[in-house]
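Q: DCA15 factor, please. Structure only.
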Amino acid sequence: QLSGQLSPRLFRKLPPRVCVTLKSIVDEEFLWAGHIFLGFSKCGRYVLSYTSSSGDDDFSFYLYHLYWWEFNVHSKLRLVRQVRLFQDEEIYSDLYLTVCEWPGDSDKVIVFGFNTRSAPGLQVNMMLMSDENHRDIYVSATPCPPPVGCPPRLPLQCPAVPQGSRSSLGPPPSPATSTTPNCAMCWSPGSPPRVSRGLGVPPMGGGLDSCFSRGAPLSPVSPPELEDDKISLPFVVTDLSGRSLRPLRDRATAQGQYLTVEQLTLDFEYVINEVIRNDAAWSRQFCSFSDYDIVILEVCPETNQVVINIGLLLLAFPSPDEEGQLRPRTYHTSLKVAWDLNSGTFTTVGVGDLTEVKGQT
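A: Structure for DCA15 factor:
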């Protein structure tokens, strides 16, 4: 059953004078080169495209490049910027790419990629290889071309934040992203969602020559030689030439400009157990949960709160009012929580009723 209404169309038919075919504004050599055109940037001045290339053998890496083309309705597209995405990452399979822009920040774009199938021909078990229960996630933050008349500056690039996701019950859900809060990105790759923020970057000025990075708030910066804790994953920050920016040990000694990167991670298994224990009317019936799915419903830029829906498959005893032998049954329900990006805490918004799933034990 469908409800609601569709938004009325602004135009029933577009006048021919505003219709431009892609072949009329793009040289044929670029089309043969495999450019995939994504559409216009938010400002409408640029058309974005990307290319994917790899070698002839099955063990070659995939290389991705993003392109900005200046759009003029009566002339060919003019290439104004080209950057490599996911710098230095060894990508073994095709990626599905999504390009996002912040509503109040036109200086940079976020490119989010995840693989949709296993790499062909690879028989060895690699960390980077994908199967039906594993998905590799890549994120690049890259600057947009400067507006006309602005002084030149050295842009930033945060080219690679790989995140792996594995589920023991089935394929993980498709990653979800939100760039509603300016200079912050909330994304859920099917595992605990993460929020990444870049702060302290002046809108104008000279080149950035140093970088300060840290994980979740109140956590000390880990020396690079220590093994990663698998929760706060390190960021790789480089300039457009691929040179890594040096992490600062003490922000007080920073000279000139610097970049602060923060990462928050929410442990959903802990959230599920806490919400059921404290807020579910059926908490005494609950035995265990076996699978869950995450959907980011809303990100409020004013309060910096993320509203998340958790679809849950669980085992629970039936209601004590039911007659017969009481054995655990399979149910599904949904939990809704609000995650505060300022404090890292969460609150319960709502808990759904238990709906029995027939045919499963």
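A: Brief note, in case it's useful. The two ends are 29 Å apart (CA to CA).
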